[in-house]
Amino acid sequence: MARKAVCCGLSSLELVLMVLFLLMTGIAVGLITVLAINLNSPTEKPEEPIPSINPPKNPYLIGLGRADCTGPAADVPLMGYANLEQTAGGIHTRLFSRAFIVDDGSKRVVFVTAEIGMISQRLRLEVLKELELKYGDLYRQENVILSGTHTHSGLAGYFQYTLFMITSKGYIKSSIQPIVNGIVKSIDLAHRNMRPGRIFINKGQLLDNTRNRSPHSYLNNPEEERKRYKHDTDKQVVTLKFTDLDGDGVGMLSWFAVHSVSMHETNHMVSSDNLGYAAYLFEQDKNIGSLPGQGLFVAALASANSGDASPNTRGPYCINTGERCDYLNSSCPIGGREMCLAFGPGKDMFESTRILGENIYRKTKELYGSAEQELQGSIHAAHQWVNMTDVTVQLDSTHSGKTCKPALGHSFAAGTTDGGGALNFTQGSVEGDLFWDGIRDALVGVPSQETQDCHAPKPILFNTGEMNKPFPWHPAIVDVQMITIGSLALVAVPGEVTTMSGRRIREAVKQELEKQNAFTNPEVVVAGLCNVYTHYITTYEEYQVQRYEAASTIYGPHTLSAYIQHFRGLARAIAEGKVGELPKGPEPPFFSNLFSLLPEVPVDKSPGNTTFGQVIQQVDPLYKVGEVATVTFVAGNPRNSGDMRDKTFITVEKFHNSTSTWEVVHTDASWETRFYWIKGTANQSNATVEWHIPLSAESGAYRIRHFGHYKQRVIFPVITAYEGSSHTFRVTKTLYSL
């Protein structure tokens, strides 16, 4: 009774408090128990993150790397238009080498795409020598492919054959060394970054961004063959997506057939052109907050079968009259060939580069984002050196053909509607010219009858295969190479392959791989401008028309058939597992005592009462986004700055009031900046910097700085660093902002 009286004597509030007390005590004891268990279980691992897609059982090891390969931004000819007057004078965008290494546990391959005109034999040999010193036989000619994006605004001077040296002012050590070092560094970084990862492949079509610049040649291909394709340029984009094991992206590599000639031959700034800008946009999108050339994500756009694929989509017209050019030989009634040029799609070359780059970027981003097919399987690499001057080609069961000693036809000197060419040469020449042939005979000799017969119907302008002083004028020994990664076959073509030529190579390699049932529906990619430069590769039918591309097919009408024969051999060896039985072939030469025609940098002088780095044209105090801030400095020759890789000649900096510090927001690698070096008289020069202020620029205080070196001579040359800065100026969203 007493207990009952006590119980019943509790108030409702007291009962609730007692229940809450008991509940809290239980919860506290439970938490203490869990904590004690965790503390006494140090070997227990936290739960692993769930992969975004189920990883393969045997993942590849992948490594990606990017490095600056920009050389001296002054005096050195730009490589592409063969115009000695088009010498470097500043930087539009920097040039980068991007390396991709893939390893399946037993074999390893490397693909490098560098933002330069093309890979020369000399460049490849020097890179391989450096790799051998560092890695022994890990990276060698069999498993390393080097490809150029074919920008015509990269630096020249990295060749060892006479024809290329003449149009490059010789072999220029200060030009080739940054390229060698940049390529090797990109491979070093990729090697250092290797880790398990995955590769996905996707492909699609990018329309309305290229135009065939030799449609008359294309139409000479068999009608039944042309009917299989909707377009006279290759619209295919092939994209590889590189991820870690969790499926998170670390890199992108894509191929698209377009000539990197959006920047015209009137340009004097180093520029990566349309493919380079597409890669730039992709990397900036992925490496948020990083300056160009920085950040972990590596994105590359590489060249494909772009030999006749022009980015100048408005087509050719006579710049003096506005009329359309003659269809057959691309010339104008008044002014001839030099007046016939192609433009577009923008109002100037900068806008055209931007439009093409943005379109390519958007397509590759779309393909990257939707890539689901994963590459899996073994890796293979096959390589041979071939004497391309003496290849017998089996054309059918009863007929054979033969390649020729190198020679260039008359239409080579005509150039293309994208630029180049001079004098009164025109495209489509199938007959010689008494005047020019007479000059040729007097200067370099008469082509042998054998060479003339071999190259017919090409009228020979330069019989380069018979010209060997001071060095051979063209290569005879050429690399043919192919690698496979799972179902992907990558064919390294040593030149500029036309649209239909590329299609034939793809088809032939695909057929050969599928014959042995070792590959099921392989994806074959033609990578252009690889390993050694041999000008163009047209079809036999295109060769008969003798436009520029055919006149520049240096090994004669059966050049494509010879390459297809050798690529079939490589594919067969891979499919049958007989790569080790392939003949190595004759090694290419490595010439010494190469000449340079680039003069030494003279001493720099500044105008009276000025110093180097001093501003002689100031910025305005206020700019609105979308406008251009411009400042001009007294400058030295940029060649005096030596190796400027990973450095910059200019910065755009923003002031932060909260910390009283300046932040670099742009460098000379940025699309928004243009660094013009203007060579004056009496060894004086200026540097003009433009900042094309983007609409995304924050309001605030900014300044533009310039860095350089000048050369003086007292008893011996002395190089001195200098820098200069503009006044501080404000950027606003509107001119009425405070």
Automatic annotation (TrEMBL):
Residues 60-565 form the Neutral/alkaline non-lysosomal ceramidase N-terminal domain. It is an enzyme of class 3 (hydrolase). One of its GO terms (molecular function) is N-acylsphingosine amidohydrolase activity. The chain crosses the membrane at residues 12-37. Its EC number is 3.5.1.23. Pfam families: Ceramidase_alk (PF04734), Ceramidse_alk_C (PF17048). Gene3D superfamilies: Neutral/alkaline non-lysosomal ceramidase, C-terminal domain (2.60.40.2300). Zn(2+) binds at residues 150, 259, 496, 536. It catalyses: an N-acylsphing-4-enine + H2O = sphing-4-enine + a fatty acid. One of its GO terms (cellular component) is extracellular region. Keywords: Hydrolase, Lipid metabolism, Membrane, Metal-binding, Sphingolipid metabolism, Transmembrane, Transmembrane helix, Zinc. Binds 1 zinc ion per subunit. Its cofactor is Zn(2+). InterPro entries: Ceramidase_alk, NCDase_C_sf, NEUT/ALK_ceramidase_C, NEUT/ALK_ceramidase_N. GO terms for biological process: ceramide catabolic process; long-chain fatty acid biosynthetic process; sphingosine biosynthetic process. Residues 567-731 form the Neutral/alkaline non-lysosomal ceramidase C-terminal domain. The active site is at residue 310. Belongs to the neutral ceramidase family. This is Neutral ceramidase. It comes from Astyanax mexicanus. The gene is ASAH2.
